[in-house]
Design goal:
377 residues; alpha+beta; Deoxyribonuclease I, Chain A; 2 domains; six-stranded mixed β-sheet; 31% helix; globular
């Protein structure tokens, strides 16, 4: 046989013969891949267990509060991350992907993601719509920024202002303030209702104002009892020949930032006490709204995120103003960094139309963004 014939009969990579297989990943590579697979599988299982437990416990027991505090967007980000990372692990990628899919389906409604938002057309606001601004002012204003504060309020050009934290903090203690004379001077033509830390301003007459009483609260820790007792102020406004009920709300925080250390008895006592304050306030608010025949706008700092179960306590007929927002992820706190939580809410009753809803710029005066909605009924 000639050399040419032998070469013609030899298998080639492109001919009928098979190419010589390359070297495998080796023992170390196989071990590393198995280890990663187990990590992603365990992580996916743990996340699924957390999501299901969260669905069951959030808003129902006080001791779950720490597990409620992560940014809600994590309910989408974490399962997608685990599923993507596990895709390269041959043996575990399918069970990991299945668990991630289940946790994603169970958690997507907790993430606060407004998928239709960017697809909505620009809202048309009728000229007679009522403009409502709600804002946690961040302890009202400091003396050196009072002018900026009132300029901020006037620039909103609202018909109704629902303002929270008309108070000051001195050496860690909440104390009342008296700034009503300047408030009336800076906001002429507005009717005013005040209780504790809540201030409602309205261009329309206030026919009735009702601070909601919550039963079963723990004793107030200091002399400023109105701050402790009244966390919701209802005002009934005469708008033409109709009456609109607005609820200005600032519900207690579930956890004091910068409070006692995590591994102390005081820390857990505080969480339990805050839960005991929150639940009666939610119940009082829900009961009053349910018995109210007027159209309702409820707005304020509810100190609850989309991932927390507290909103289940409110009447189901209340609708979130998010339904008209063009933002894919509404977040109002904190303002010093990227806002990751929506703690501020605007809800309306059946018969009230929200034409537009958005969060604004706090201009460095509060850790909460102001929220604005345009409504008619």
């Amino acid at each position: 046989m000639t050399a040419q014939a032998a070469a013609a009969e030899a298998p080639t990579a492109t001919g009928g013969g098979a190419a010589e297989p390359g070297p495998g990943p080796g023992p170390w590579g196989r071990w590393w891949r198995r280890w990663l697979g187990r990590v992603f599988l365990t992580g996916s299982a743990a996340w699924l267990a957390y999501v299901l437990a969260h669905r069951l416990l959030s808003g129902r027991v006080w001791w779950w509060v720490l597990a409620e505090l992560m940014p809600p967007v994590m309910f989408v980000a974490v399962p997608l991350l685990f599923a993507t990372a596990a895709a390269g692990c041959r043996r575990t990628r399918r069970p990991a992907a299945l668990m991630c899919a289940v946790s994603l389906l169970a958690g997507v409604g907790l993430a606060g993601i407004n998928l239709p938002g960017p697809l909505r057309s620009a809202p048309q606001v009728p000229p007679d719509a009522l403009r409502v601004v709600s804002w946690n002012t961040g302890y009202w204003h400091t003396t050196d920024r009072a002018d900026d504060f009132y300029r901020m309020l006037r620039d909103q050009r609202a018909d109704v202002y629902l303002l929270q934290e008309y108070i000051a903090e001195v050496d860690g203690v909440i104390v009342p303030i008296d700034d009503l004379e300047r408030l009336r001077r800076e906001m002429p033509g507005f009717h005013l209702a005040v209780i504790g830390e809540l201030v409602t301003l309205s261009r329309y007459p206030i026919v009735e104002q009702t601070p909601l009483e919550a039963d079963g609260l723990p004793p107030a820790p200091d002399d400023f009892t109105d701050f402790w007792r009244y966390q919701v102020l209802r005002t009934d406004l005469r708008v033409g020949d109709r009456v609109l009920s607005t609820y200005n709300a600032h519900l207690p925080v579930p956890l004091w930032a910068g409070g006692p250390g995590l591994f102390t008895g005081e820390f857990h006592r505080t969480i339990r006490e805050q839960h005991q304050r929150r639940v009666p306030q939610f119940r009082a608010l829900a009961a009053d709204v349910a018995d109210n025949d007027n159209p309702v706008v409820l707005a304020g700092d509810l100190n609850t995120s989309p991932a927390m179960g507290d909103l289940r306590r409110l009447p189901p007929e209340l609708r979130d103003a998010e339904s008209v927002s063009r933002s894919v992820y509404l977040a109002s706190w904190p303002t010093e960094q990227v806002s990751s939580w929506r703690l501020d809410w605007a809800l309306v009753s059946t018969g009230v139309t929200v034409h537009r809803y958005e969060f604004g710029d706090a201009r460095g005066m509060s850790d909460h963004r102001p929220q604005t909605l345009w409504v008619s009924w």
